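pls read this protein:
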Amino acid sequence: MNHWRQALLATACVALLHGGAHAQSTFPPRGPSGTVGVKLLDVSPDTIGITYRLRVNTCVDTASKKMIFIGVRTATPEVLGGSGRGTIDTDVMTDWVQYEDDLGHAGWPEQGIPHRGQPSLWLRNIDYGGVGRLGIRPLTPGARSRFPRQTAGIDRINGERASLTSISAIHQGSILGRDVRLTLARQPLVQMRSGLDWGHRFTPQGGVTPMLPAGTYWPWLLTIEIDGAPTEELLFLLDETRGQYIATDGGVSIRTEFFLRPDIPKNQLGDLQVFVWDVATFREGGAGWEPRSRWLYGEDATPSDPAVGYGFRTTTYGGRPVLEISYLALAHYFFRHAAYYAQAGDVLDLSAQ
């Protein structure tokens, strides 16, 4: 029995000893998505890089996909009104899909051979503003096969998002039990000709094109280091009007989705435990990486019904403090108190551990 299970059972016993009213209290039904989120604090306005480590420590075969969105939002401050923000996601999903590189317009959801219960990285360049000026290109020899690209859009189930592009590069394999370091660093502004091999994108008319529009772009280099695998690099392009710096107001965030499903019993959703640690940022002209340790738990889909049995907390891994994002199948029966997971408004400070 691992330390996590031991802690679960110990806390469950404490909850039961506190008395029937406390242990058996009930909450109104939550919405279907189970969405809670934190954002990184103390991000400087001239930040051009972020690095962190993560690990999927536990992932019991799940009846439905769980999603952990690790997002970096960028902005170009001097462009008033501009085209909004760029979005680069290094998400963790409880599955992966197998396919060939540059699959093009495959429709939504992402197409390929599913591998359920095998957590993986889903790297995405997302065009929420509908600008159409973004791209992903593999740089290292293995990146094209290990992180192939396809364009499936963004929840293409309504008219508002039918023409919005999301270029995905989904890791072909499981990262369960493997330490991962991700480093995202902005490069100098470049003038690009129209060209191929940057992934497909949707047109405003709802069609699809493989051509990157000519223009000026901010390149962001993503370096991926997974235990037991070669280091790989992918280059993300963001339009000059939206990709200069990491935004200070929630520019780095972690959010959950589908941690609850109303159609599936809660004790059948399967456990998930992910760690994030060693977060540091780099400022333009800076001398080195600066540690960042504080996260604000500021998002709960229904604040009057705090998340029960899942969410964010601080713990230790390998003798160091880490941010834990987890779902415990048994917790809905035992964790009916606020002591285990953080509550909305809490600041989780890893340096204080």
